[in-house]
Design a protein that fits this description.
The structure holds two protein chains of two kinds.
Chain A lengths: L33 E10 L19 H18 L1 E10 L5 H10 L4 E5 L2 H8 L8 E4 L5 H7 L4 E3 L4 H14 L4 E6 L3 H16 L3 E7 L10 H8 L7 E5 L19 E3 L3 E4 L10 H12 L5 H20 L4 H8 L6 E2 L5 E4 L6 E2 L2 E5 L2 E6 L25
Parallel strand pairs in A: 1-2, 1-3, 3-4, 4-5, 6-7, 6-8, 8-9, 9-10
Antiparallel strand pairs in A: 10-14, 11-12, 12-13, 14-15
Helix pairs in contact in A: 1-9, 5-6, 9-10
Chain B lengths: L1 H19 L3 E6 L4 E6 L4 E7 L4 E6 L5 E6 L4 E6 L5 E6 L4 E6 L5 E6 L4 E6 L4 E7 L4 E6 L5 E6 L4 E6 L4 E7 L4 E6 L5 E6 L4 E6 L4 E7 L15 E3 L5 E5 L5 E6 L4 E7 L4 E6 L5 E6 L4 E6 L4 E7 L4 E7 L1
The chains are: A alpha/beta, B mainly beta.
Amino acid sequence: MSRFSYHHFTVLPGLLLAGFMCLLYSGLSAAGHLDIRIAYFTQLKKPPPPLSNLDPFIANKGIQGARLAIRDNNTTGQFTDQKFHLHEVEAAIDADVTVAFRKLLADGYQLIVVNLDSEKFNQVAGMPEAKQALLFDIATRDDALRQTSCFSNALHLLPSRAMRADALAQYMLKKRWQDWFLVIGPDEKDRLFAAAVKRSAKRFGMKIVAEKTWQHTHDARRTAQSDVPVFTQGVDYDVLVVADEAGLFGEYLSYRTWKPRPVIGTQGLVATSWHRTHEQWGAVQIQNRFKKQAGRWMEEEDYSAYLAVRSIGEAATRSHANDSAAIRKYIFSSAFTLQGYKGRPLTYRPWNGQLRQPVLLAAPRSIVGVAPLEGFLHPRNELDSLGFDQPETTCE
Amino acid sequence: MKMNYCLKCLLTLVLCSAAARAETVFVTLEKDNALAVVDPVTGKLLQTVSIGQRPRGIALSRDNRYLYVATSDDDSIEIIDAETYDRVGRLPSGEDPETFALDPAGKLLFVSNEDDNLMSVVDVDEKKLIKTIPVGVEPEGIAVSPDNKWIVSASETTNMIHWIASESLEITDNTLVDPRPRAAAFTADSKQLWVTSEIAGTLLILDVESRQISKRIFFQVPGLTPDRIQPVGVVIDRERRWGYVALGPANRVAVIDANTLEVEKYLLVGQRVWNLAFSPDQTRLYTTNGVSNDISIIDVKEHKVTKSLKVGRFPWGVVARP
């Protein structure tokens, strides 16, 4: 098949006596030695106010996944005579990220894993100097970035809010939980997730029977035990859908509602790209390798950074290239498939750079389902039943 | 006369049952920590034998006396008496053994250690680990060529076949293959290596002499999107007439004409079919169907599924003993 490009490999039997070290210089060396320089760019984050001591604040989400992938790439690289380098840059908390980012570009980095919030991602991706670079966004879930900004130099690794809401909606449809009570936090991000939930409700023919905003006050009389029943009283619904991305109140809804109803959304049953309870499709292997390296469970940003660096590795190995144009071209070609421990080949949507991937539906201690659920069909790729599909895209 | 008739009946019965037990199929049950013992002729589950934790890969010693079973969570390979089903010993295997292969003499056993990116070489008689060979990320499928020249190891995340020369036990060549290679099998003449790629959904035919891909076979099943076709286990008959590929969640075994290298047909079996094994006379093919908890028995001459049989939770590996 001509759409695949494979290279001829040479045997160098004489070189192999020294064993393992020798492999660095032999094997698939027809194309010569290649260095692939990847940058990881992030900004130091302020720890949020702690709600409980259960889950410690993780300051280095993301980078550990990139480091693991660099190791994997280099294990492969010793057979292909390719060396992958990871250059880590961390901007200060209040720094203007464009300054550090501009320097990174000036230093010649073109393949950049970016761990920034959506506002700052917009700033760096839109810089004229970044036009030729390929940015792997591992931290945003913004639909606007994928539907209106439409940066042609950006790939988005995390599932968007729309993909998450669709994954949950598929499950609720399957369970016939058709009447939703939507609870929205006061934050802008909560509003964005609620918008995605409303879009999914419409898409899957579900009904939002009530919608309320949760207010944070300092009233000492308000406790979860007293407040949640009153808050959820007087509505007839099947399921409580919560939009609380920062996790400020959602955990307190389960078991406290007026009627006995399941909680789903940002708490309760959640839609996520990775979860510590996930172990199918070889996931146990990467969970073990990650824990050994990082001393903690893999988070979504780590998984995304892992896939970003592995995407570069896969493209570089197959295309024998290290520049952003060739890597981008290979990633969007039909030959590219990435294995991501979720049972289906992962690819990128050409219309908005979003990584196509199954979305896990996770309870705190078990995987409840993996979307797309069985029966949700699509003419080309069932993974496109999640999020903005090609006919719905507003990108050009 | 009557007596004679009865005697005949009895004799027939004895002969039949003897013939029936001429073959025993063993299936590892990953989630039951057990081994299912099956009579494939009558299609009956005879016994379930408890063994170590998370049993996966299974093989028979060359003299057919022992079974080797990788008990992954115990980090060992158990040696089980194939007659009494007693555990008679253990082989060192390195961490988390999953699949392994024996050399033609049955003296050396090659094991993939998925978490450590290693292949372990074990001396079966001495029960000793004699070498570890660094390979790519997440090595899985292993095969030894029948002419004993090559051992190949497939790395799932590196997407490579590593060619290890039997003489030196060193990697002397690597072939980049399609994403997530799972299993590899040599043809009986050692001229071809068949490699399945789970994520690309392909079967690659590699020419052993050049160690390059000579043909890529795609699978298409009406009503299934390509991403559900995830080839895993592969076997080729001794005459190199037919090859068979287990297609995972496509719930089918593909029959491949080994001469033309075209797909002949698809046989519907149980859910998430992974591993395959022939009967010793190669008239039957057994499949392990991990999700539907059963095995399917295929009549090789007719290319028909004749029976499916519940065996236990997550059947993984299968081997038939004459």
